[in-house]
Amino acid sequence: MIRLRQILCLTWLFSWGWLHAQGLREIEFSVYGQYPVRGVEYMPVKAEAVVEGIEVAPAVTIETHSLARMGPYTFKGGNQITFYETTSKEPVARVALPLTSNQWLLIFVNNPRYQDAPRTNLRYLIYPFNDSRKNFPENGLVFVNISGKELDGLLKNKRVKLGAGASGSYRIQERIPMNLWARGVDGREFLPALIKTYHFKPDHRYLMIFFPPVLRGSVDLDVRLLSETTKSPPTL
User: Fold this and answer.
1) Which one, of 36, 129, 125, lies nearest residue 83 by Cα?
2) Beta 140-145 vs 124-130: how paired, if at all?
3) CB 93 within 8 A of CB 126
4) What is the C-alpha to C-alpha distance for residues 2 and 20, in angstroms, rounded to an integer?
5) For the chain, which end, N or C, has fewer CB atoms within 10 Å of the first or last residue's CB respectively?
6) What's the rounded Cα separation, in Å, for the pair 126 and 94?
7) Short-list 33, 147, 140, CA closest to 92
8) Going residue by residue through the chain (236 aa), what tens digit of pLDDT does each one get?
9) What is the layout of strands, in order, in the sheet containing 190-199?
10) Contacts by residues 125-128 (CB-CB < 8 Å, ≥ 24 positions apart)
């Protein structure tokens, strides 16, 4: 019995060491899209991860919702996740995830180059947002600017400048007027991109995503506000 336990222990240590030597990770993610994503799947277990303790798993279909993130989904493998069309099995999106976190929100955006050159471009681009509580805390508001425009303005009385990518976390208040401006097509004059007052609830965290304007040449951003409660449900 002791000998068997020693063998099992050594086997587990070998497998654990092999996984880390190969840089394999267990990642949890949810998905969101500017436009609906349908008929897309991924393999939740990478081929290299099929070793002791990790079994082959069938493909998982994902889809996005316009009002909320969908998930969570899990992935066991390396730093890269590839998504495929469910019928043709052709790749439609790919994302490489930094080692800074194993919790992510994957934001799908239509690839503008796909329509003109579908053979050399994937259908979607993916922006990975670090969804960990350290980066995206309770009672926090984070902006993700993938609009292609630099934004300047005010959050209530606080001056802000929002460049490309994710901002730091701002402490939410019950009511925050937002006045954000961006340069027009000519690059000279500033035009209003978002002028609106938002209301927030405690025990939540909020993510505001700025997508490119729906109308070409406009600075009127396509804005999505995702909220998530951080309050634990009552126990029965």
Assistant:
1) 125
2) unpaired
3) yes
4) 27
5) C
6) 7
7) 33
8) 333 333 223 222 333 333 344 468 899 999 999 999 999 999 999 876 656 467 788 999 999 999 999 999 999 988 999 999 999 999 999 999 999 999 999 999 999 999 999 999 999 999 999 999 999 999 999 999 999 999 999 999 999 999 999 999 999 999 999 999 998 877 778 899 999 999 999 999 999 999 998 887 788 899 999 999 998 766 66
9) 158-162, 151-155, 175-183, 190-199
10) 125/93, 126/93, 126/94, 126/95, 128/95, 128/97, 128/98, 128/104
Question: Does residue 196 sit in helix, strand or coil?
Answer: strand
Place of tokens 């279909």: 61
Q: How many Cα neighbours within 13 Å face the side chain of 136?
A: 22
* Nearest-angstrom CA–CA distance, 92 and 81: 11
Tell me the HSE value of 77 on the side-chain side, using a 13 A CA sphere.
18
Tokens of 101: 């976190």
Q: Tell me if the domain spanning 24-130 has CATH number 2.40.10.
A: no
